[in-house]
Amino acid sequence: MSDPLLSLRGVKTDIAQYHILHGVDLDVPRGQVTMLLGRNGAGKTTTLRTIMGLWQPHTGDILLDGDNIARQPPAIIARKGVALVPEDMGIFANLTVEENMTLAAVSGPIDKTRLEWIFAVFPPLRTFWKNPAGNLSGGQKQMLSTARAMIEERRLYLIDEPSKGLAPAIVSTLARALRDLKQAGATILMVEQNFKLAKALGDHAAVMDDGRIIWTGAMAELATDAGLQERLMGLSMEHA
Ligand SMILES: Nc1ncnc2c1ncn2[C@@H]1O[C@H](COP(=O)(O)OP(=O)(O)OP(=O)(O)O)[C@@H](O)[C@H]1O
Ligand SMILES: [Mg+2]
Fold first, then answer.
1. Which CATH number fits domain 4-91+155-233: 1.20.1250.20, 3.90.1140.10, 3.40.50.300, 3.40.1160.10?
2. Who surrounds ion ligand 2 at CB < 5 A?
3. Atom 7 of ligand 1 has which residue's CA nearest to it?
4. From the CA of 45, how far away is ligand 2's center (Å)?
5. I need a labelling partner for 52 at 20 to 30 A (CA). Which of 25, 69, 160, 223 fits?
6. Taking the complete model, does pTM exceed 0.85, yes or no?
7. How many other CB atoms are found less than 10 A from the CB of residue 29?
8. pLDDT at position 223, please?
9. CB 42 near ligand 1, within 6 Å
């Protein structure tokens, strides 16, 4: 792969006394969507949190355009253009939608054109702009969480299971927003257990198991090979 935006090399992360990542090697190509897949507990969330600086790897390098961001604080990594949509959404329930969005824009005031784009893909955010984020429905909270990452043009979007627990209509709304983001040329590393969404958005796939990457290739290759899915993830994507 030529000149990836992000490269992880031998990344090992411990949480308390547990060894969780056992040497993750992963390349994330620019302007494309890489799906990080694997069984529950494989280490997908830990990988995204380690890239964001929320866990510190004890060894290994995380190169963002050649700049080693491993062991830098999350605020610095955010300012370098990395945004995380966390598994638990990570919004501030007591702040309004507007305040949540304003805080997510780390490099300055919110760009009006970009905000209009976000309102067009997620209309409830306009409706509830002045309301506390804690009052939003589950689907609207996921829209806000995704919108916080989208509010600025980022070098890298890390998105952790955006469709989790959401009704199909909301998943379609999110899929449309993520497709827009992809079409705008974004580089995305995304965890997604909804295989329909993973197949629709993913260019590449990286499969993790027990804290390591065990397979990388084209999403289309994985999506069409049920035997491979079974071997790598213990399940077939058609039945997930
Ligand atoms: N805060 C923590 N304290 C202790 N162990 C943790 C913590 N967070 C994660 N782990 C452990 O690390 C391993 C990897 O967890 P991680 O959340 O990265 O998996 P995942 O691939 O995202 O799984 P899922 O598909 O269920 O979201 C698991 O065994 C988990 O129990
Ligand atoms: Mg997870």
1. 3.40.50.300
2. 44-45
3. 15
4. 4
5. 223
6. yes
7. 16
8. 92
9. yes
